[in-house]
Amino acid sequence: MSRKPSFANLRTATPKPAPATAEPTPVSSGDKPAQARPESRIGRKQIAGFFTPEMSFAMHMLARRQGRSLQSLMAEAFNDVLRKHGESPIGE
């Protein structure tokens, strides 16, 4: 019967060097590869929040019934909040 190898052996092993790449990957702001970001997100910032499952379901259902995206409903809600507090709405 063979024994399982010990993880202690990994501490003394020398790490293998990473393979060299021909070209460095271009980096955009945010330390992500430039080609990994869809063109529709360039020049935009993410705003996120945590909500109850009921709120999430209600917003998704409303978006579905209206044939709109959740993002467009959120933009409308944010513009309403801006107006309520005397700020100019920004738009999409």
Automatic annotation (TrEMBL):
Pfam families: Antitox_RHH (PF20605). Residues 12-26 have a biased composition (Low complexity). Residues 1-45 are annotated as: Disordered. Residues 41-90 form the Antitoxin-like ribbon-helix-helix domain. It comes from Novosphingobium panipatense. The lineage of its organism: Bacteria, Pseudomonadati, Pseudomonadota, Alphaproteobacteria, Sphingomonadales. This is Antitoxin-like ribbon-helix-helix domain-containing protein.
